Amino acid sequence: MSENIEQKCLAKGVKLTDQRKIIAKVMSESNDHPDVDELYNRVSKIDPKISIATVYRTVKLFEESGILAKHDFKGGKARYEELNEGHHDHLIDVKSGEIIEFVDEEIEKLQEKIADKYGYRLVDHKLELYGVKKKS
Ligand SMILES: [Zn+2]
What we know:
The chain has helices at residues 5-12, 18-28, 36-46, 52-64, 105-117; strands at residues 68-71, 79-82, 89-93, 99-102, 128-131. It folds into two domains: 5-82, Orthogonal Bundle (Arc Repressor Mutant, subunit A), CATH 1.10.10.10; 89-131, Ferric-uptake regulator, C-terminal dimerisarion domain (Dna Ligase, domain 1, 2-Layer Sandwich), CATH 3.30.1490.190. The chain is built from five helices and five strands; from the N terminus they run ααααββββαβ. The chain is α+β, with helices and mostly antiparallel strands. Zinc ion binds at residues 33, 81, 88, 90, 101. It is found in: Cytoplasm.
């Protein structure tokens, strides 16, 4: 199992108040890329005294500390996930907002090929696919 956000904060010297600890815990347990409103909903159930402003500030702090990744998927609010070593891309259901994570070796290689063609060595990339579910 990977380290949780609380451990990462400790490792990076990010100070954790009790409220931040709750936000870190909820975020660690969320695998669905929540936005701040959704995260606030979850956090409120544990501690109703936490304000949405605190959630915003904490998420921003975690993002700036390299603990969370922020995604600005088009047509929606910024969504967050724990930044882990493993790379993956996203397929976004434009109707439900559901997010599917995937890694495709062919796409990875193809992107390197394109960068190479223009004389570049690829250091990072971001791929977002948007779709609607086919009727079966
Ligand atoms: Zn993801």
